[in-house]
Amino acid sequence: MICDREGFQLDVLKKYVPNRVYTDAVTMMDEARPAGIVVATPSRLHGEIVRSALERGIHVFCEKPFCLDWNESFELADLAEQRGLVNQVGYHYRHVGAFQEMKRIVESGALGTITHVLAEAYGPVILQPKRATWRGRKSEGGGCLYDYAAHPLNLLNWLFGVPVQARGSVLNSIFSAEIDDEVYSTLTFSNGVTAQLAANWSDESHRKMSTRITMIGTNGRLFADRQECQLYLRAARGELPGYEKGWNVRYTTELSRLPWFYLRGEEYSNQMDAFITAVATGTPGAPEYGFRVAAETDRTISMILDDHAGVASVSPKPAARKRGWFSR
Q1: Residue 286's closest CA among 61, 9, 47?
Q2: Residue 138: which region, alpha, beta or left (left: phi > 0; alpha: psi -120 to 50)?
């Protein structure tokens, strides 16, 4: 079943979709009683819809960003865990083989002490002044920070956790009236790593969105994007067999798990497969895709906003994670 409020889309859905089309999410959940739902609404609506679903015992896949208020994000993560419900947020780059390999290399320690990281996202979304959609309205949760920068930030959270500080944050408008079109910030993590964030969705030099992570360590250099993972090692390390001194390249095509169905790309297919399989088999789902890690990204976004506004924002010491399927 489907729920939507837009007139044009409703006409199309009612014409071509055999199931009933609802215009109210709560009514749909109460009447249809689905096992799981996908929330793909403007960001400001995520929290209330997700909460309504969890309170009814419904498993939830929510598009990113999770919530505009990071406190609500953590509250919903707690609620989902307490109810034992599958919960997932659509940070699809965690399903890209090259980024998964990057994480494996970092955790192996073969790169040595990581001294610096650059996290980037560029693409041609807003290239001229135009009438704003919901993504171009601050109250709806739009802007480059939420829509583009959230992806490399989520990868940084995956690798290093929540930063302890954001500094020098810049949010510039190029064509948009209400929101940012480019974002820059320097993040410091508890292990001493610093990361520079650079994101711009008004960059027509890119045909489509490009997200990449580059890092430098005492034993080499590591780079990953959607296509490949490149590693330069000053010296081969026993903890990373198969990688030699010098340049090593692994391609996403050889690193990715092939999905059993295709939805836009293997990363999108695999993320939906992970959710559907968890719901169908009654398993809790992988913690690296859940609400709690998405809440960490929402917290990081909040730190950048506070820093840009001149508000001191230092991440508190994180509470000890509960043991079980949501612990790392």
Answers
A1: 61
A2: alpha
pLDDT of residue 265: 84
The pLDDT tens digits of the residues spanning 241-284 come to 999 999 999 999 999 888 888 887 889 999 999 999 999 999 88
* pLDDT, position 312: 65
What does the alpha-carbon distance between residue 115 and residue 69 come to, in Å, rounded to a whole number?
Answer: 31
What are the backbone dihedrals phi and psi of residue 269, each rounded to the nearest 5 degrees, phi first?
Answer: -65, -45
Closest CA to 195 of 218, 167, 223, 221: 167
Question: Can you give the pTM of this predicted structure?
Answer: 0.91
Query: For the CA atoms of the chain, what is the radius of gyration?
Result: 20
Question: Which phi and psi (to 5°) does residue 80 adopt?
Answer: -65, -40
Burial class (CB in 10 A: 0-12, 13-18, 19+), 133: exposed
What burial letters (b/e) apply to 52-91, b meaning 16+ CB within 10 Å?
bbbeeebbbbbbbbbbbebebbbbbbebbbeeebbbbbbb
Q: What is the pLDDT of residues 41-67, one digit of tens each?
A: 999 999 999 999 999 999 999 999 999
DSSP 133: -
β-pairing, 210-217 vs 220-224, is antiparallel
